[in-house]
Predict the structure of Ribosome-releasing factor 2, mitochondrial.
Amino acid sequence: MLSNLRKFVVSHKKIPILHVNNMCCSKMRSSLQRLKPHVPLGRNYSSLPGLIGNDIKSLHSVINPPITKIRNIGIMAHIDAGKTTTTERILYYSGYTRSLGDVDDGDTVTDFMAQERERGITIQSAAVTFDWKGYRVNLIDTPGHVDFTLEVERCLRVLDGAVAVFDASAGVEAQTLTVWRQADKHKIPRICFLNKMDKTGASFKYAVESIREKLKAKPLLLQLPLGEGKAFKGVVDVVNKEKLLWNPNSDDGKDFVRNPLLEMSDPELLKETTEARNALIEQVADLDDEFADLVLGEFSENFDLLPAEKLQTAIRRVTLAQTAVPVLCGSALKNKGVQPLLDAVTVYLPSPEERNYEFLPWYKGDLCALAFKVLHDKQRGPLVFMRIYSGMIKPQLAIYNINGNCTERISRLLLPFADQHIEIPSLTAGNIALTVGLKHTATGDTIASSKSSALAAARRAETEGGKKHRRNNEAERLLLAGVEIPEPVFFCTIEPPSVAKQPDLDYALKCLQREDPSLKVKLDADSGQTVLCGMGELHIEIIHDRIKREYGLETYLGPLQVAYRETILNAVRATDTLDRTLGDKRHLVTVELEVKPVETASVMPVIEYAGSVSEDLPMASQEAIENGIHSACLQGPLLGSPVQDVAVAVHSLIIHPGTSTTMISACVSRCIQKALKKADKQVLEPLMKLEVTVTRDYLSLVLADLAQRRGTIQEIQTRQENKIITGFVPLAEIMGYSTVLRTLTSGSATFALELSNYEAMNPQDQTVLLGR
C-alpha cells in the first residue's frame, strides 16, 4: 500500500498537535490511523516529523529514511556544560517545538522526570527523533553527573557519533574526561562544541588548549568566535570564509545572516580567517594522505582556491578515523551557533553504514538489535528502547531474546520524541525504536528474530572464529557486549511503611532494577531487611524519591553506609570434614585447602587445584566446590563485607560415593571461613578521586578541610581565576561533602567525584571502624 501512495499532502492547519486524522486522501486513513500520538504534554508541535510546513513526502520516507541519511548521536559533557539547553535549541530550530524550553524553568523536552525538572539536572537519557535538512537525527541527551555514569555508558553503546559539549570558561572538566574515555572505549567519532561563549571569563583559546592537553586530541578549528563574553555576537566559518551574525533583536535566534568575508569590509578578520584556514588545511593534510596528495598536486601554490567541499570531505574522513575532532563554538542559552552545529552533525558524523560492527555479517540481514534502556510507563507497561543493527521490526512481531533465552511479542512500535511517542508501522536498520509489550527484556539484552536465526548466526561466528582462533564460547553466545556495570559504593536499608506493603516495595524495586542495572537490591540474611546498593548519595536519594512518586510508597531509608571490602595478608591452610546421614544416605566430604593473598586486584577469588585433585574431578563436583568458595567469599570475617584479592588452592578432596553437591559446597564454604578467620585480616575502603574548583580566596579553607578528611592532594592547577584541586579522599569521609563545601566557600565552589580504587585502611582507622 505504501508504495502506491508515494505522496500525500498534509494540510498544515489540520494538524495542531499531530492529530493526523483529517487527511486529504481518504485511502490514507487506515495506514495513518497508526500514526496517532499519545499524551500531548501541553506543547504544540508544528507537524508530523519530517512534514514541516506543507512539504509533500511519501509516508515511507517519513518513517524509514534511507540509511545514509540517518545520524544516531549523543550529547555528552560535564555536569552543567549546557547539554540539555543545547538539545532544547536543536529541537526548536528543527521545527519540533513552538517555544524555547529552559532548564531553570523546568520545561525542557528531554528532562521530563519530576526529579530532573526540580533539580535542573539530567538523570535518565532521553531519546529524541527529529529531521534536519533531509536527515533523520536520533539524538540522546545523556547525564553528566558521576552517579549516572552508567546511563552514559549504556547510550554510547548504541550511538554512531557524539557531540561533546564544553563550558568555554572551564574547558575540560573532571566528568568530561570520564565521558571522553567512555567514547574512546566504544570508538565513537565526535565533534566538540564550546558552549557558553557569552559567559564572563569564556576563552576560546584556553578551551581549545585544554582539549589538546587533557584529552590528548587534535582539535580542528572549523569556527572562530566573534567576540567573547558579553561581546560575543556570532562566529566565523573558517571552511567557507564566511561570518555568521545573529540578529540582536531576535528573541529566538532563528534569524542570522551569513556573509562572505571581504577585503573591503573586514580586512583584519579576513586575514585571521585565511591564516586559520591554511593551518586547518595543513593539519588535515598531515592526517589524511588522499587529501595531502590533492593539496600538494593542484593547490600547492594557493590554498584559497581549494573548494570547501573537498576540505569538508577530508575533515569528515579524519573525524570518522578518530584522528582529530572538529571544534565549533556558540552559546545555546543565547541561541547562537546551534544551526551550524546541526549542519556539522549531518556533514561530519557517520551514518549507521559507516560504522563497522564485526557481528553484522553473522546475521546476514536478519534482525539483530540491542535493548539499551527500559522505562516503565503506568499505562503501557515496560517500554524498551532498541537500536536496530540489521533487519526490520514491526508490531506483532515475535522476537527472540538471546540473553534471557525466551521469545516475546512486540505489541506496538513507537518513534520516541522525549515523552511523546508516535506510533509507526515498521522500522528498519540504523534506527532507534521504542517497543511496547516486551515483559522480560532488560537493559543490555541482545534481540534476534528467532532462536534458529540466532543459532545460524552463532555457527557463522564459529566458522569465522576458527579462522581467527577466537574462543568458541564467545562466538557461540553472540551477545552484543552488554554494559559493564560498575560495583556499587554506597548502601542503605530500605523499609516499607508496613509489612503489608513489602510486596509492593519488592515490585517497585524490581521495575527500577530493570531500568537501572547499577542499582542492586539484596536481602540481609541476618536482619531480613532489604538493602539498596547504589553509585552515590544522589543516586540513592533519587531512587527513594521515585518509589514515593511513581509507586506511591512512603519508604524509610536507613543511614548511608560505605561498601567496604576485606582481604587477607598471609597464606593459611585449613581442613574440614562434613559427615551427615540423611535418611539412609551417608554424605561424607573431607577437604584441605589454602587461602593466600594475590598481588593483582581481583574481585572474584582465583581458584587453583592440585594435580591429584583435578585429574578425575567430575564437572558437577567442580561446580559445587566453586559455588562454595564464591559464597564463602561474599561475607568476610571482619565486617561481613565481600573478600577480594585472594587465591584458593584445593590440595586434597575426598568424596564418599553418593554425596550430594550441596554437601560438597557446604563443606568447602565452611573450610574457607575457617581459614579466613585464622589469617591476618585487612579492611579495604573505597578511595574517591576528587576534583574541587574553588576561587583563590577560599583555597586554604578547602585544603584544611580535606586534610581533616584524610585526603591526599595530587596537584593544584590554575584555571583562569580559579584553582583546581585534584586528590584522593576515602568515601567514608566525603559523605555530605557538598553541603560542607557550599558553607565553606559561600556557594562558589563545585566538586566532582569518581571511584578510583580500593585501598587498605591504616590500623588505627580500622580499629575505630571495627569498634563502631
